[in-house]
Hints:
Oligomer: single chain
Number of helices: 12
Amino acid sequence: MRFNKLDLNQLVVLDALLSTRSVGKAAERLFLSQPATSCSLARLREYFEDELLVPVGKTQVLTPLAEELTKPVRDVLLQIQTITRARPTFDPATSTRRFTIEASDYVISVFLSEVVKRAATLAPLMQFDLRAISPQTPEHLESGEAELLIAPEFARVAGHPAEPLFEDTFSCLVCAESGKAGDSLTEDEYFDAAHVGVEWGGGRRITFDARMLSTSKRARRQTVIAPTFTLVPALLVGTSRIATLPSRLAHQMAQRFPLRVLECPIKIRAFVENLQWHKYQERDPAISWLRSLFRETAQCLPAVSGHGEKEADKSSAASRANRANRGSGAKVKPTKVASSPTASKRRRASDTEGTVSEK
């Protein structure tokens, strides 16, 4: 099939060449031989009257034209992919679709673990590739390599739709055998203590609480910095250190390790984890169904108060916002795609609701 004298089959090859910047890697991705891929590159060079890939030392770099083609070519293929996946109905019970989802290990622990548990019953053949957020995450969402992203506001990718999933506050976590901390912490004790911090995402991205405290007059003394949230317990047990973590994760860790959850004496605003997907996958029935499953799972999470204690009898502000967004109140069903919510601004209940109280 040719369009404007271009063999449209070559668009797939062009996309692989532009993203890998290597004939060999593009051939591996497309399950083609290197000679066949080289021939395709030659035809593409002839059509565009441009080298596209040029050698610089031992590497290949894109020409200015190739740089300009990268995004539109990928967007076209994503739109074609959406068209090919269109079906009058979607049945999760028989779907073998594989989803790539990027999120922090905190989100995987407290939220996605519940999602995949529900999916095991509703969509037993569905596959989930859970990946840690990295500096390449925006590129992965843009290219379609990752279908879904869960991240706080500051890590959202511009230009793609999003909706709030759940809210969390901050609590302190200490070793249960530590004699330094009693039933509570004062502000002075908090800043005088040694801390375990987390800088995640491969690119040493700091956490939301670290961002908030970076502008305060007093600084935490971080003696240990972990690359993931889930490594924090091993770095706390047997020490007098303190870790400031999302309350849901802190309580989860306290159930599994000899640790205690304490109210944080510093006022840190609550934060919201948002779900994002590619703009061209807005009407993908499988993505729509999975988003509905995410919303249902988020609404079933126990709420957390300002001081981090669970309140099973209350709904969090994020859950209320989600219910309002849903409008029709559609439920997740194994054989029906729930309608997607209309994007709306999330309401804050008050200046103090969902924040960590200051002592």
